[in-house]
Amino acid sequence: MGFSFECQASCNHTRARAGVFHTPHGIVETPRFMPVGTLATVKGIIPQQLEAANAQMILANTYHLHLQPGEEIVREAGGLHKFMAWNQPILTDSGGFQVFSLSELRQITETGVTFKSPRDGSMINITPERSIQIQNALGADVIMAFDECPPADATKNQVEAATDRSYRWLKRCIAAHEDTARQALFGIVQGGIYLDLRTKAVQQLKELDLPGYAIGGVSVGEAPELINATVKHTTPLLPTNKPRYLMGVGTYREMAQAIAAGIDLFDCVIPTRFGRHGTALVQGERINIKNAKYKRDYQPLDETCPCYACQNFSRAYLNHMVRSQEMLGYIMLSLHNVTELIRFTQQIRQAIFQNTFATEFAKWLKDELD
Q1: Residues 6+ away with beta carbon under 8 Å from 325
Q2: What is the C-alpha to C-alpha distance for residues 363 and 369, in angstroms, rounded to an integer?
Q3: Residue 51 exposure: Cα atoms within 13 Å on the Cβ side
Q4: What is the DSSP secondary structure assignment for residue 357, as one 8-state letter?
Q5: Residue burial 97-116, b: 16+ Cβ < 10 Å; e: rest
Q6: Residue 153 is a catalytic residue
Q7: What is the pLDDT of residues 6-20, one digit of tens each?
Q8: Residue 175 half-sphere exposure, CB side, CA atoms within 13 Å?
Q9: Backbone angles phi, psi at 300, to 5 degrees
Q10: Of 93, 141, 147, 302, which one is the catalytic site residue?
Q11: d(Cα 298, Cα 316) in Å, to the nearest integer?
């Protein structure tokens, strides 16, 4: 099976849509939150638990897997799916985000980016062609174009230069990509908070007729209202017959508002990062389980949640484990948080089918519906 996207239902009051993205390793029902497994593992969660959480697609990172263990080891193991025992869809980031996040360790030229390895100080050169070669070896279903993600405080001239370079690099990625039947290459729309640059970028990318499109360069330090304005402007410009992916976003409000604009896919490190710091996401609220008030709270985190933590453990027990720095406590919070954000997008999907999205999720959409 190749790649295709089918829209199954749409909202009468917003641009929200429910669909199915078909990949060689199965379907992804959208809208859908995708857990992040940077180093080919979603931290603390085994594949069986991810399946139980309805994680239909997960992420891994090209840059980090290139450093450790190296893409050739993954290729020799049979590709990422076999290496990490996950037989459902996988997406690999190109390493482009590290152009932003490791700004003190890299140098950008037209050829590509030279990084100083945070592991041993050695110099690593990643070009668009090299990024695609690494991703071809890793074998994910969806691979991302290598791009330059400018920071939120970049000037318009700097953002425009990065956006134009990302387009030139995208064309080099397309030329380097070998197995289009097995791996779908998504282009990434850059442009910062400048809507005219976003419009220009979309127009250029649409002409390339890619299998899917991502919006990048958001949630990199700008205010939430600017994220919303950028996504609200950019998303409707993208093709309706291709999946739309908003990179690096995973809060309730940002996802709901982005879905209202027409976004299909999300990823974020929030659920496992929060879990490792003792924070649980419960129906839109953040709970610091270490707080003393939970010492004698014998209720589950969320009695409506099907995850193992909520079905078996009390808040008091989770409080005890986290206060004792027991690994199981952090693992259970991470599992719950992943389940929670996937459930949130599943609930929105169901509401789109029932045409109740705008009313059921009004508290998250109030900026959209004003």
Answers
A1: none
A2: 10
A3: 8
A4: H
A5: bbbbebeebbeeeeebbebe
A6: no
A7: 999 999 999 999 999
A8: 9
A9: -70, 165
A10: 93
A11: 6
Measured in degrees and rounded to the nearest 5, phi and psi for residue 27 equal: -95, 155
Tokens 């956006």: give the residue. 163
pLDDT tens-digit readout, 303-340:
999 999 999 999 999 999 999 999 999 999 999 999 99
The two structure tokens encoding residue 268: 């974020």
Give residue 369's pLDDT.
46
Q: Is 267 annotated as catalytic?
A: yes
pLDDT digits (tens, 9 = 90+) for 284-312: 999 999 999 999 999 999 999 999 999 99
Beta bridge partners, 116, equal: 123
- Catalytic: which of 147, 264, 267, 302? 267
| Contact (Cβ atoms closer than 8 angstroms) between residue 55 and residue 34 | yes
The domains of the chain are located at 269-370
User: Which residues of the chain have a pLDDT value below 70?
Assistant: 1, 97-105, 367-370
Q: What is the DSSP string of 113-140?
A: EEEE-TTT--EEEE-HHHHHHHHHHHT-
